[in-house]
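Sorry to interrupt, but I need a hand with the structure work. It will help me judge whether the discrete encoding reads sensibly. Write everything out right here, beneath this request:
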Amino acid sequence: MEDAPEHDDRSAPSALVQEASSAERVVVLKVRVPGRTSLVVIAAPRSGPAGAALLTIDARREAWGGRLPPGLDRQRAREASLEGARVVALGPSAAFIDQRGTPRVVRAAGGRVVVTDESVSEGATLFVAIDDEERARLEERGLALARAVAADAIESRRVELGRILERAAARIERRRVAIRGDLDKIGQADRIASQAQWLIAEAARAPRGAKELVVTDWSTGEAVPLTIPLDPSKSAKDQVAAMFKRAKRLRLGARVAEDRLARADLELAAVRAAQEELGAASSLLAVEEVVQRAKRAAPRAVTLVGGVGERAAPRGTKAEAAGGRTPFRVFLARSGRKLLVGKGAADNDALTLRVARPHDLWLHAKDRVGAHVIVQLDKGRTCPAEDLVDAAHLAAHFSDAREEKVVDVQHTDRRYLRKPKGSPAGFVVVDREKVLVLRVEPELLRGLLEREEL
């Protein structure tokens, strides 16, 4: 492993951090150099040695499935601070980064991952200088680290999901009790209806202000007195008529109640089976699969948050917005902000009308055929000028004006767009637009295109 050269860390070759996933004991950085995207893992597992290495997407999927092992508390402020930094070098237990001009280190130490000020130390390898042989060795170490982190997480996740299943079983049991209560009421209504002729006759004889009617129930073959309470302020005849209407309504709901009870029985059996299987599951993926099966069997009762396989889509997006496929490409602005670009006319509609939120910024090459571009913004915030220029470059490039040096780019808040009924795919009417006269900078555009998230 070659030593780091002695010069300003900021001038060292580096890779952009496109995405950061952080918890107390593990940080995963998705980094991009031209032509390659890599995952860097820095971990301090309870079992096994701490360290820093590379991690393949397949290895991460095998170990825990999603961005981080489920059940861990994500450190979102740290993630935001790391995104947009540049990885300079990789050491045995640390990743050395340039965080907007400040040399920092993300290090596994003392049973957790910390970020401190530190320049590249001897023994670290420049990130862009990692060759295929070194990469293979680092990926092997990364898989071992990922497995150790997953082993730490599995027991806490098993306990957490066990509580979820127990709550689900309790919800289903309460529903079963309620349905049985409905069926009991239906049975009582049937008994009342079976005494119709006697109740009607008795009601006709009842004096005003009567508090009850008493008839003989012969349904069991024996004479059993059946007492029906009355409201003394109302006519006995009217109350008996209302009882029969209610009995008829309840009988109509009997089949529905029986079907609901049968479904509840099946759901409870599935959840109880999952509780038994949970203890035998030997990996995070197996644990999650057990609970996902219970979720499919009892979707209303089993409430899951942050499971394995969860993929972090850009905030506010809907991956299913275009029939199960993502209708946009994602590029990173110089600031690290994600810029969403529609893939085609129908995808433009999906991105603008179903993914973008009212306060997001929309851009398009004015009076041209081209892609819609969305800049996702926090509510009440305006788009920084640098991000606006980057997004405008993408709007110009992905249009029929891509060969021109000066392009008019219209932009407005998503709330000021509307789509007329029957209009063609990708067509929208723009209110309150602003126009940016963009002078295309080829080097800036080239950098944007290289920072596409794959």
The radius of gyration is 33 Å. The chain has ten helices and 20 strands.
